[in-house]
């Protein structure tokens, strides 16, 4: 998933991408009620607006970003 997110980061320059090591940052894992990894959380104005759990098709992530950009 990291490779895909790096590619998307190039296409979405106005989006901040961050990767978190949930073993090192267990408090974040608990705060967002994560059930497993990988987990992608999309934020708008500092609040989570969409969560994608598990590995999905590449298009799912791009569609989610496009939807968020259109909001």
Supply the helix-strand structural class.
alpha+beta
Quaternary: single chain
Query: What fraction of residues sit in β-strands?
Result: 15-25%
User: Separation of termini?
Assistant: 24 Å
Give the topology string: H per helix, E per strand: HHEEH
- Give a quick account of the main beta sheet: strands, pairing sense, barrel closure: 2 strands, antiparallel
- Total number of beta strands: 2
> How do the strands of the widest beta sheet line up side by side?
1-2
Question: Number of helical runs?
Answer: 3
Overall average residue pLDDT: 88
Radius of gyration: 12 Å
Helix content: 40-55%
Morphology: globular
**Low-pLDDT segments:** none
Annotation keywords:
alpha+beta; 2 strands; two-stranded antiparallel sheet; 71 residues; 3 helices
Write up this protein.
With 71 residues, this protein is of the alpha+beta class. Helix content is 41%, strand content 18%. It is built from three helices and two strands. The chain has helices spanning 2-11, 26-31, 58-70, and strands at 39-44, 47-53. The longest helix is centred in the C-terminal third of the chain and has 13 residues, at 58-70. The mean pLDDT is 88.
